[in-house]
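User: Hey, my collaborator sent me this sequence without any context and asked if I could get a structure. I don't really work with proteins. Can you help?
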Amino acid sequence: MADGRRGAPPRDQASAAPSPSADVAERFTLPEFSTVPQAAIRHALVGEESAAQSAATVQVPAQADLSPPPRPGAVVHPGMASPPSTKILVSRHVLGSDLDPRLILVREPDSARSASFRVLRHRLVEKGNPRAVVVTSAERGEGKTTCAINLAIALSECGRARVLLLEANLRAPQLASLLGFIPPECFARQLARHREQPMDPWYVVQTASPWMHVAAMHPSGDSRPLLDAPAFSIAIDRLRLAGYDYLVIDTPPVLGSADVNLIQDAADGVLLTTRAGKSTARALRGAVEQLSPGKILGTVLID
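Assistant: No problem. I've predicted the 3D structure and written it out in structure-token form, which is a compact way to encode the shape of the chain:
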């Protein structure tokens, strides 16, 4: 397995207990895709006020269809490479200079940590190249959002693919704050609207890469609705037809709700993230038992 960590561990970690991922891999025979060391990464979110200020950089077109540029060597079609029934309206957001440390491929594209996500990209191809990938974890704080956003950037890197990063964590959304924008329309509201009007356009934001779009929840502290499984299934079906090569879905943790069970039914596979020094074999065992075994693609160790 390609690994972002090389050489001996630091002196202050030499006597640390082994990561639970080794125990989990042995117990469940799950393939561990890639180790992403990020001990220096903080988990500070951009505050709502800061996000609102940076929203000035997002220009929401009234009727424009701002599709990402075609991949190198791809056949160019007018507008987005999709049936006219699925329309994507794109706002463009330029990342500021004060980047969240979790944007690893943007902050340090030549680092070993970034290379680990590129390894993960290749491992997914080896696993059958699933087109709709759920990224989750057993419990909170185990790196699922970090993994989802960097995987999406890695997949879209250099125009290899058109990627849509979806936020399905209705209770604790982070993507808009992490990227520093206010979405033109909250993804939860879009889900509700498209259940009644499936032919309506979808509103997304282009950021971090010309070939990556984001459909995020509003970062405000408003109460979140329960996930509408039929609406989410309709959304994935429609967005599969919108010209994207990959859908990467950031979700809540598995334990504590049934949201991921409903989400996985509309996806092709599930990645489980674990964090060294935090994740436990017991929690991951419970997550594996709650998910459909045939959907699990493997585990990603966030260190």
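In plain terms: The two ends are 16 Å apart (CA to CA). You can pass these tokens on to your collaborator as they are.
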